[in-house]
Amino acid sequence: MDLSVVVPTLNGRDRLAACLDALSAHAPEAEVIVANGPSADGTTGMVRDRDDVDVLVEISDRTVNVARNAGIEVATGDAVAIVDYDHRIGESWADGVRSGLGEADVVTGPVTPVDAPTAADGNDDHEGGVSGATDAPGVSPDPPEEPPDGPERRTIAGHDVTYFESGNVAFRSETLRDLDGFDEYLHTGGARDAAHRLARMGCEVAWRGDLAAVKRLPSPTAADGGRTAREWGWKYRALSYRLCKNYGVRPTVLVRTGSHALTDAVDVAREVVRGESTPSRWVATGRDVLVGLTGGSSDGLVARRRDRSPARNPNGISTRADRAVARYDGRDADGE
């Protein structure tokens, strides 16, 4: 099985280097593709100086689903994995991918967060980054002391949905082709949307403990410090969009969105009572939630009409050809 690994990244040079070191040590035969958002921290130069990256795709979008698709569309393996730039794979990871995809369409595994070092090493602007446990090249991450029993599962509108780790997952290439990659409308929640669509397509998502990775959390002293503010509008836009797109307007969809909104409303109200927020902030949060729900539901229904196929992806890989603004291809003598 020929394996391609897509690594989406944005302003995470040092954590990306640790990720690539782990891939080189534990999956040396894999084709490695870095999809770099408009980074401003020297990522391009660092990647081009390495001889263990096969393709560097430069994109102008800051959306992780665009980066994922940009990498997927140049991958040549009959298996394609996505590993976030702040993740480090372990020694058994590659064997876990090959064994898992021998039995299922998609395979995923546990990701263990680890504390960031004290020095700032970049930002975390993507949905689910990638990082390493240490800065020493080739060091395998320790396995989780208490690995999860398996992935999150839900039954929605009669479909059994198995969610996967967005930054530690591998697909058969034909599965990604049928899925048409990730939905680029979504700024967040792209992996959960893909899980819904996989369930509708009847694809099996397997979980393997040996497909383990560690994720280094953003340093609190980093320039951006990671995402600290809760983006309520996009959270609910993404939630309502993917549910309406995949299932239409159903009582179960309304119940799920309503329960999420009620839970968050109560949590923010408790913050007001504790003095950690203000009543005006609570009102503003409610406004953002309503706007997000309304916009996402409308756009989801439009997307549902635009693509009635099982893939339900009107914003996938096949819909555009201008993701890359530059490409450096080590597979070609001259590159591009």
Entry summary:
With 336 residues, the chain is α/β, with parallel strands linked by helices. 37% of the residues lie in helices and 18% in strands.
Which labels suit this protein?
single chain, 336 residues, alpha/beta, eight-stranded mixed beta sheet, three-stranded mixed beta sheet, globular
Give your account of this protein's structure:
With 336 residues, the chain is an alpha/beta fold. The chain is 37% helix and 18% strand. It contains nine helices and 13 strands. It has helices at residues 13-26, 43-48, 64-72, 93-101, 173-179, 190-200, 232-247, 251-273, 279-306, and strands at residues 3-9, 31-36, 55-59, 79-83, 87-89, 106-108, 111-114, 153-156, 159-162, 168-172, 205-207, 213-216, 324-329. The protein has an eight-stranded mixed beta sheet, with helices on both faces. It has a three-stranded mixed beta sheet with strand order 5-12-7. Strands 8-9 form a two-stranded antiparallel sheet. It is globular, with a radius of gyration of 20 Å.
